Amino acid sequence: MRAVIQRVNSGSVAVDEKIVGSIGKGFVVLLGVNGKDTEADLLYMVDKIVNIRIFEDDNEKMNLSLMDVGGELLVVSQFTLYGDCRKGRRPSFINAAGPEKAEELYNELVKKCRELGVKTETGTFQAHMNVNIENDGPVTIIVDSEKLI
Asked: Where are the alpha helices (DSSP H) in 18-143?
């Protein structure tokens, strides 16, 4: 799995000009699922998302997690994170999971974040979405479950 985590003051996602998910302070997570991803990748990603310490403490050091600050999540599925642009001019998406597997793991990640008590909103899987993000910092971190070392 691959995630682009953006620290935000607020975020929202709209489908057909209707807001389907919105949050206040927290993370907008753009999530890509690889065809080889397993339950282990899912658990790794959930742990990283809720526990990564990129909120500032009283000393202005990035030392607090989403859980520490009571932050919210907006998780948006984005298969294009697995676009491979090394050859030619058009990306190849061969490494992205098919829709059935991707949706299953995406929904499971959302479920597990909610089970941890994190307010978690979503986009609409496979829909054309307009995502509005008010970055805080900006702080943007890329997490990839394949890059464990």
From this structure: 39-51, 66-69, 99-115
Residue 122 identity (one-letter amino acid): T
For the full predicted model, state whether its pTM sits above 0.90: yes
N-term to C-term CA, the chain: 15
Backbone angles phi, psi at 132, to 5 degrees: -105, 130
Encode 27-56: b = buried (16+ Cβ within 10 Å), e = exposed.
bbbbbbbbeebeeebbebbbebbbebebbb
Q: Is 93 a catalytic residue?
A: no
Catalytic residue at 79? yes
Give yes or no: 126 in active site: no
Active-site annotation holder among 6, 27, 55, 79:
79
List the catalytic residue out of 6, 27, 55, 78. 78
Strands 130-144, 62-64: pairing is: unpaired
pLDDT digits (tens, 9 = 90+) for 94-114: 999 999 999 999 999 999 999
Sketch out the chain's domains with CATH numbers: 2-144 (3.50.80.10)
Beta carbons within 8 Å of 5's beta carbon, 6+ residues apart: 27, 28, 29, 49, 52, 54, 140, 141, 142, 143
